[in-house]
Amino acid sequence: MERKRKHDVEEPTIASGMDNDEELSQSATPEEVKKGDYTKVVSLRYDENPRL
Prior knowledge:
Blueprint: H1 20-24, H2 30-35
């Protein structure tokens, strides 16, 4: 069994042409959750002009 080196770790990617906001906001189906085929997504947004 071959060990991975620190620099061999794969970076997460998103398919080109994917609408990130729409695609990442979709909930997993009950079947996907049951199989464990889902990823928790956290979206952080910074508002430079907050309403007072």
